[in-house]
Structure formats: C-alpha cells, structure tokens
Amino acid sequence: MRILLIGYGKMGKTIEQMALAKGHEIVGKIDRDNAHELQNFSSKDTDVAIEFTHPAQAFRNISYCLSNGIPVVSGSTGWLDKFEEAKNLCQQKQGAFFYASNFSVGVNLFFHFNEYIASKMQAYKEYEVAVREIHHLQKVDKPSGTGITAAEGILASYTNLAGWVSDNPEEKTKLNIASEREPDVVGTHIVTYSSEVDKIELGHIAHSRAGFAEGAVMAAEWLIGRQGVYGMKDMLNL
Ligand SMILES: NC(=O)C1=CN([C@@H]2O[C@H](COP(=O)(O)OP(=O)(O)OC[C@H]3O[C@@H](n4cnc5c(N)ncnc54)[C@H](OP(=O)(O)O)[C@@H]3O)[C@@H](O)[C@H]2O)C=CC1
Ligand SMILES: O=C(O)C1=N[C@H](C(=O)O)C[C@H](O)C1
C-alpha cells in the first residue's frame, strides 16, 4: 500500500515505523514546513493518506484528499465542528473517509463498555457521572477527542444531561470532562460514577502510541476499495 503521511510529528513518525514494518511504502511526508507539497499528490501515486496534524489544519488536508480521489484516514482531534462538511464532501465526491478520535482497539473496547455501563447506570441517579482525561503537556486541544467520544457515549443514555462541559464540575445540568496536562502522559481516560457511599470507575491508559498507530494502519488497509464515511465501530464490528 502506498501511504502518504500528512503530519510528521509524534503520530506521523510512529505510523511510519508501523507501516514500514508491515511492508507498506511511504510515498510522502507532509509537515507544516512543506505543507504546500500536498498539492503534488494524487490518486495516481497514493493509495491512501493518513492524516494526524492539528485542529486548525485537519479539515483542509482531509478536503484536499477527498477532492483529489485519495482515500483518507484521519485521527486529528479538535476540528469536529467541520465534520458534517467533511462527510458531505465525501458523499459528493464519492470518496472514502475514515475518522476516529482514537484508533486504539483497547480504547474502542473501552467506548463499547462505557456505553453499556452508562445504559445501566442512568437509572441510579445517586451516582454522579464524570469523565477525566490526562495528556502530555504538548497537547493543544481540550478536552481530548477521546474524552468527547466517551462523553457522547454516556449522553446517549443520560437524556437528563444537556450535553457536556469542559472543566466545569459546578455545571450540574451537563456532563463534566475534566482535563489534566502532565509531562509524558500518552493518554489516560477515566469515567467515574460517584455516590456518597462508593465509586465505580472504568478507565483506559495508553502505555505508548503504538496502539494508535497500529489501528490507523489497520484502518488504511481496510479503507482501500471502500466508498463512504467510516469509523472504528464499522471496522471492528462493535
Ligand atoms: N485518533 C487517535 O488515535 C490519535 C489522535 N491524535 C491526534 O492527532 C493529532 C496529532 O498528534 P501528534 O502527532 O501527537 O501531534 P504533533 O504535534 O507531534 O504532530 C503534528 C504534526 O503536524 C504538523 N502540521 C501542522 N500543520 C500542518 C499542515 N498544514 N500540514 C501537515 N502537517 C502539519 C506539525 O508540524 P509543526 O510541529 O511544525 O507544527 C506536527 O509535526 C492531534 O490532533 C492529536 O490529538 C493523537 C494520537 C492518537
Ligand atoms: O494528542 C494526543 O496525544 C492524543 N489525542 C487523542 C485525543 O485527543 O483523544 C487520542 C489520544 O488520547 C492521544
């Protein structure tokens, strides 16, 4: 598979290692300082693009790929206000687009169990539900994309809550997502149900970026030959 890497930071470099180990070819590496070179790539030389950049750049990169017939896998977070636009463009161009806030199989199992637990816990209003995410100091967006997906999984059952809120535990009508930034934390997500007498927790701790990279390469392999908008639930049958 001929892969174009868009974003050559922590994730781009980890994905490169994973892809080469699986026998794939990297046809290009686009980063901020050579971003203009993206226009040189087309479906003639690229089977799939894997995009991990920045909240402010992701939509433009994804749009370029969809407009030029390049199937695109994106893991960038913090840009989802434009997700509907990306979906529409994908439909219009009959393209292929795979998005996940988190490509790790373990996190997607965590999402699955999180939805199930929320569906049971919503009947027990003596428990207050909250989401907490902890990441490294370089992370630019808050809350994390994974934290938002976890919150949405809970809100599907908690119809009494009017959406989520970032770092505002006093706002009792909404589900709080608490964000913490600490050196060298790859990605930790914890859902807590607290009552006066006890606490139930479901959590996921990433030990490295290998799980994210492995999932992204798996998604790229899976996307080739498909048309439409997909996510991890489609690939993993969750
Ligand atoms: N879905 C998932 O499983 C995961 C998602 N992520 C998300 O992926 C994104 C990237 O994470 P990470 O690799 O850790 O971040 P990094 O900051 O390490 O890397 C991002 C890279 O993108 C580059 N970049 C900035 N603008 C452009 C542009 N216009 N075109 C191409 N490249 C550009 C940056 O360059 P420069 O440094 O010069 O700005 C940088 O090298 C984040 O949104 C993060 O939240 C991260 C891990 C897992
Ligand atoms: O920026 C990161 O590092 C990560 N970002 C993703 C997110 O925002 O959920 C996924 C992972 O937690 C690492």
Automatic annotation (TrEMBL):
Q: SUPFAM superfamilies, from UniProt? A: Glyceraldehyde-3-phosphate dehydrogenase-like, C-terminal domain, NAD(P)-binding Rossmann-fold domains
- Asked if the record carries the keyword Coiled coil, the reply is no
* Keywords annotated in UniProt: Amino-acid biosynthesis, Diaminopimelate biosynthesis, Lysine biosynthesis, NAD, NADP, Oxidoreductase
Q: Record's superkingdom?
A: Bacteria
Q: Where is the Dihydrodipicolinate reductase C-terminal domain?
A: 106-236
Q: Name one Pfam family in it.
A: DapB_C
Q: Copy the pathway line from the protein's UniProt record.
A: Amino-acid biosynthesis; L-lysine biosynthesis via DAP pathway; (S)-tetrahydrodipicolinate from L-aspartate: step 4/4
What region holds the Dihydrodipicolinate reductase N-terminal domain? 1-103
The Gene Ontology biological process terms listed for this entry are: diaminopimelate biosynthetic process; lysine biosynthetic process via diaminopimelate
Spell out the molecular function terms from Gene Ontology.
4-hydroxy-tetrahydrodipicolinate reductase
A Gene Ontology cellular component where this protein is annotated is:
cytosol
Enzyme Commission numbers on file: 1.17.1.8
The reaction(s) annotated as catalysed by this protein in its Swiss-Prot or TrEMBL entry are:
(S)-2,3,4,5-tetrahydrodipicolinate + NAD(+) + H2O = (2S,4S)-4-hydroxy-2,3,4,5-tetrahydrodipicolinate + NADH + H(+); (S)-2,3,4,5-tetrahydrodipicolinate + NADP(+) + H2O = (2S,4S)-4-hydroxy-2,3,4,5-tetrahydrodipicolinate + NADPH + H(+)
Q: What class of enzyme is it?
A: oxidoreductase
* Similarity field: Belongs to the DapB family.
Name of protein = 4-hydroxy-tetrahydrodipicolinate reductase
